[in-house]
Automatic annotation (TrEMBL):
Cross-referenced InterPro entries: Ribosomal_bL17 (IPR000456), Ribosomal_bL17_CS (IPR047859), Ribosomal_bL17_sf (IPR036373)
Region (Disordered): 128-156
Protein name (Swiss-Prot/TrEMBL): Large ribosomal subunit protein bL17
GO molecular function term, any single one: structural constituent of ribosome
Protein family according to the UniProt entry: Belongs to the bacterial ribosomal protein bL17 family.
Bias type Basic residues, positions: 131-140
GO biological process, one term: translation
Keywords: Ribonucleoprotein, Ribosomal protein
Quaternary state and interactors: Part of the 50S ribosomal subunit. Contacts protein L32.
Length: 156
């Protein structure tokens, strides 16, 4: 039974797991997207999203908290300067996991994890929003047109 087991240990000791997640977070912040396994991507998402939330408020305390997790001065600077400016109005969900299929060598499930605001392909689709529709049988414009048609038919 897995009652109360909230952390995926990824078959690693604690120090190895923390170092791996720290390194992957630095790579994600630097390159904006990385390829990894699905399990590591899910663990990385839980690790990096609170750090991005802390970076939205640029205080010395938050910088020190984030630096304690990342251990990379360049990544902290990039996070607080560029990434925080882009995700400032987003209330969460800063990363996206896209499954890629299986790796050739060991058939592991692979995924790409990326920062949401840095993908221009999805931004273009979101910019061209379609008009919202109501879920009713007749809309106001079509019912008004129908009323006008019946009045014109009655007059004839």
């Amino acid at each position: 039974m897995r009652h109360g087991k909230k952390v995926n240990h990824l078959s690693r000791k604690t120090a190895h797991r923390k170092a791996m997640l720290s390194n992957m977070s630095c790579s994600l912040i630097e390159h904006k997207r990385i390829n990894t396994t699905v399990a590591k991507a899910k663990a990385l998402k839980q690790f990096v999203e609170p750090l991005i939330t802390k970076s939205k408020e640029d205080t010395t305390h938050n910088r020190r908290l984030v630096f304690a997790k990342l251990r990379s001065k360049e990544a902290v600077t990039e996070l607080f300067r560029d990434v925080a400016a882009k995700v400032g109005d987003r209330p969460g969900g800063y990363t996206r996991i896209i499954k890629l299929g299986n790796r050739l060598g060991d058939n592991a499930d692979m995924a790409m994890i990326e920062l949401v605001d840095y993908n221009e392909i999805y931004k273009l689709e979101a910019g061209a929003k379609k008009a919202t529709t109501r879920r009713s049988r007749r809309s106001k414009s079509s019912s008004a047109a129908a009323v006008a048609d019946t009045k014109s038919n009655e007059e004839e």
